[in-house]
Amino acid sequence: MPFTRLASATTPTAHLGLGLAAVGRPAYITLGREAELPDRSPEALRTRTHELLDAAYAQGVRYIDTARSYGRAEEFLGEWLRLNPEIQDLVVGSKWGYTYTGEWRLDAEVHEVKDHGTEAFARQLGETREQLGDRLDLYQIHSLTPDSPALTDTALHARLAALAADGVTVGFSTSGPAQADVVRAALEVTVDGERLFRTVQSTYNLLECSAGEALSEAYEAGLTVIVKEALANGRLAGEHAPEALRAVADEAGTSPDAVALAAVLRRPWAGVVLSGAATAAELHTNLLAAAVDFGTAQLDRLTALAEGAEEYWRHRSRLPWS
What is the pTM of this model? Predict the structure, then answer.
């Protein structure tokens, strides 16, 4: 698996990754983007993406996360990789299953459309290959939910197994209040007696911990666990951070986002924790998580911030695309 490269990496930030959702398209669900991205033109976001990739690699990040539905993120990443052919130690993951439909507009009525069928997989794999070539290490089903046909579609499973046989690791991501159920169901998916999925990417943070036990089970089963939305779409960063989180950050001499990410990094099953930074300065404070230290009593105060899964996802559904 490509993640063995991360396991052997010596940089303190090797288990922190960079996700490109916030810079591959003009609209995304993250608080505070108005100030971070005043110019949302394709050229401006291409430049910003390349700046972030430069900064991330220089600071030891070795995993990059993108998706077909992240606007032009795969394109921007592919260009950067071709501009830097000497960089061969990155692990590159992308996702299929959503099509970007926002037409580069902030006010689009529908930003993305979900389709987990075999035809969508074949089409999007071709598109991803066009942008990333042979640099694709991991391809994940984007946002599996309990009603997704991808959990039971044996024809799709056969195609995914063929991709794995071709050297690309196959995984899935989850969303919504039933993440734990989906993780456990996906662990049962096999092809020719072998477990199909080798990675899982789930939302987990100080406010939404409901998938924790299932992610631990996935880790024990041999899957690499990738954590997304560790800052809860901006709710655990800057002025939006809860008072208890800001207090612990002050005591630790760092920022709320670094503490929130560090709390997730402490989970023994967390293989990679993603930053969704939109600026190099924000990325820098995120990466300080690798060095944050706090005690058990402080961690208990942070754990008390957890919300119920249904409450958390209702709140998330009301956050604006900005």
Answer: 0.97
